[in-house]
Specification:
Elements lengths: L2 H27 L1 E2 L38 E8 L6 H9 L7 E7 L6 H14 L6 E4 L9 H12 L4 E7 L3 E3 L3 H12 L3 E5 L1 E2 L4 H6 L2 H9 L2 H6 L12 E5 H6 L12 H11 L4 E5 L4 E3 L5 H16 L2 H28 L2 H25 L10 H20 L4 E2 L2 E2 L2
Parallel strand pairs: 1-10, 2-3, 2-5, 3-4, 7-10, 8-11
Antiparallel strand pairs: 5-9, 6-11, 7-9, 12-13
Length: 412
């Protein structure tokens, strides 16, 4: 066997093993928050049953053993979200299947009329007799803090003191009517301190469809979910800040968002802080209950990833090593297959083609499990990985040049 054939065979075997790991994670270990309640009810913490076929808005009188007895505070940080906050807020106000929610929004120095939009929606609610939601104005950003951790820290301080669960939601998330009740039930059933119910990521433009599916694919492929839940290692952690559910006592024990005040990936770092304090974390597929379109244009997507990718890998050396491996395993095979076929090296071409198709299969498995789009997007998986490499390079370059910023604030 020639060196080229051996190297191609080895790479294909690695991709096969990673795709098998994706299948195991997706099929066995990834928790799921179902769209419909369990008709039998699950007082132990499953999805709440609904004895009232017509449903009830959150804030109705709880009834039945399936209804969560604890108080829940839903916390929404806002900075220049005037174009998205109204649908998000109305979805929160339409929550049902649980007790009344304390909904608190914090305007973090918005300049686009975000607060005015919230006040209009709040006025509609008050006209209907509801005291919700509450809008608070954020304090100036102190030295040593990044914007989102400080906004979340303030929100936690404004939450109902009787709330035992805090639910952090971003303005680009749309929740189904039972999402909060199901997420809180999922937190308790998993017996964890922090649950990250991952929403379905909406991708409409070509750039979004190339990049956004990598979020779920990366952790389903490379993160051992079962070990993450069981292990006390803080490094073995993942979370998504778009929709985050945390036990309040455990959140306090972890140091709240003050523990991650200067972290650009505050969601993952909060999960690690929870682990360091002795708590446990879990991921769940919430694609049937929540959706999120994180970026509305290529420029927003590019800048959003650029601001944070450097923090995902650590040192530039680590980033270079990881990206080199990803490019070799997922981007090189189709190129090698064509080159080998043209050169008449049929065995190499066939092995490289198999490696490419196995990579596509992993992408399909991830998309199917998390509500994503499979075809024809998965066929462009090599391009997606190459684009991730470029965005990472850009992130390190702009960080070194001290030119990283997000929503009008510098990222240090």
């Amino acid at each position: 066997m020639t060196a080229g054939l051996a190297a191609t065979a080895a790479g294909t075997l690695v991709v096969a093993a990673l795709t098998a790991h994706t299948a195991v994670n997706a099929g066995r270990w990834l928790r799921r928050l179902p769209a419909e309640p369990d008709p039998a009810g699950d007082p132990a913490g499953g999805t709440p049953a609904d004895p009232d076929p017509a449903g009830d808005r959150a804030g109705g009188t709880p009834s039945g053993p399936d209804r969560p007895a604890e108080r829940v505070a839903v916390l929404l940080p806002l900075r220049n979200e005037a174009d998205r906050v109204a649908p998000c807020l109305r979805a929160l106000l339409a929550q049902r299947g649980g007790p009344e929610l304390d909904i608190v929004l914090l305007d973090d120095g918005s300049t686009d009329g975000t607060a005015e939009v919230v006040r209009r929606v709040a006025a509609e609610e008050r006209a209907a007799g509801s005291p919700r939601p509450r809008l608070v104005t954020g304090a100036p950003l102190p030295a040593g803090w990044l914007g989102k951790p400080y906004a979340c820290q303030q929100l936690a301080g404004h939450a109902d003191p009787a709330a035992t669960v805090l639910v952090f939601v971003d303005a680009d998330v749309l929740l189904a009517p039972r999402a909060v009740a199901a997420a809180v039930a999922g937190l308790r059933r998993a017996d964890v301190t922090l649950l990250s119910p991952y929403p379905r990521i909406v991708a409409e433009t070509a750039g979004e469809r190339l990049v956004q599916p990598l979020l779920q694919w990366l952790w389903l492929t490379f993160l051992p979910l079962r070990a993450m839940e069981r292990s006390r290692r803080a490094a073995l952690a993942a979370a998504g800040g778009q929709f985050l559910v945390v036990d309040r006592a455990g959140y306090a024990a972890a140091g709240c968002h003050a523990a991650v005040r200067d972290r650009i990936l505050e969601d993952i770092e909060l999960a690690r802080a929870v682990k360091r304090s002795g708590g446990r974390i879990a991921l769940a597929d919430a694609s049937a209950l929540a959706s999120c379109r994180m970026y509305g244009s290529w420029a927003q997507l590019r800048d959003g990833y650029t601001k944070s990718l450097w923090a995902s890998f650590g040192s530039p050396v680590s980033a270079a090593a990881v990206l080199a491996a990803l490019l070799a395993l997922y981007t090189a095979p189709p190129l090698l297959a064509v080159a080998a076929a043209l050169a008449g090296a049929v065995p190499v071409a066939l092995l490289a083609l198999a490696g490419y198709l196995l990579g596509v299969a992993g992408r399909v498995l991830s998309a199917r499990r998390t509500g994503g789009r499979c075809w024809p997007d998965a066929l462009a998986h090599p391009v997606s990985v190459a684009l991730l490499g470029w965005l990472t390079f850009r992130s390190y370059h702009l960080r070194r040049a001290r030119r990283l910023s997000w929503r009008g604030r510098p990222v240090r």
